[in-house]
Amino acid sequence: MKALRWHGVKDLRLENIDEPTALKGKVKIKVEWCGICGSDLHEYTAGPIFIPGGAPHPITGEQAPIVMGHEFSGQVVEVGEGVTKVQPGDRVVVEPIYSCGECEACKQGKYNLCGTMGFLGLAGGGGGFSEFVAAEEYMVHKIPESVSYEQGALVEPSAVALHAVRQSKLKVGDRAVVFGTGPIGLLVIEALKASGAAEIYAVELSEQRKQKAEELGAIVLDPSKVDVVQEIHERTNGGADVAYEVTGVPPVLTDAINSTRIGGEVMIVSIFEKEAAIKPNTIVTKERTMKGIIGYRDVFPAVISLMEKGYFPADKLVTKRIKLDQVVEEGFETLLQEKNQVKILVKAE
Ligand SMILES: [Zn+2]
Ligand SMILES: [Zn+2]
Q: Does the global pTM surpass 0.90?
């Protein structure tokens, strides 16, 4: 079968590899759609990051070259011995987290914080940029007829956004601000709508991204045109209840802190590549809190239910659809060049 494998920086190859088999406890899936994620792009331009480069991953036992793609939907074609959760014909999405099951994080059920955590599609185990994947039974979640395969490919990134909002102290009727409206920032806006936020502010510079945020119902503020901290304080009468930092840009963290009210909260949703200097007193003197989240846990069923209600809409968030043999030029390269792209989906055929 055809599969896209990471060999090195700027070296992704569409190759012919053996189809996976439905071994004991595994579910063989015919992939329908797979999204290109920001972390896939990082592996392309600056990897290996999550991809095991020099030594095999402790859980999968695999190392580069590995098949990429972790945001996918598909149909079950075969199940291995002992599998009871799904059967051939079922429509599914995959929650692509490998965890050891033994470390302190795993014992607490926080499998996304596992010390040897890995992603199917980055750490081995096959991936969604191929025709078939054999995933572990525990990773598989059924999707109903009312959730399309395209929509299904958005479950994984939407799970990050829903986890961020669920881990924050946002209450129904609160006011929130999202700094950065790339794909995850836009999904955070959707998660906030689903969670009953009364007002959602979005801070963004890019013209196209501003438009998308507005289309989803956010009140957009451009930091090149207004003092966003002052503007948010005025409009909310004292500051946002919760700010979500989704840029990874150090000075933005300071704005995120200062945009919240006394006792407010800052959720760090992005990965920072550098140190970010903050003034601790901006936390101390207002009794604010700051918290980070990574990935997701236990939220796939909730995301799927919200999608049935129309949240995280694929028709607004998917900006391009391509085929597997176009994935490098029309997918990865396009995402690097075109800021107006939100989510590019790849059809596995
Ligand atoms: Zn992802
Ligand atoms: Zn663990």
A: yes
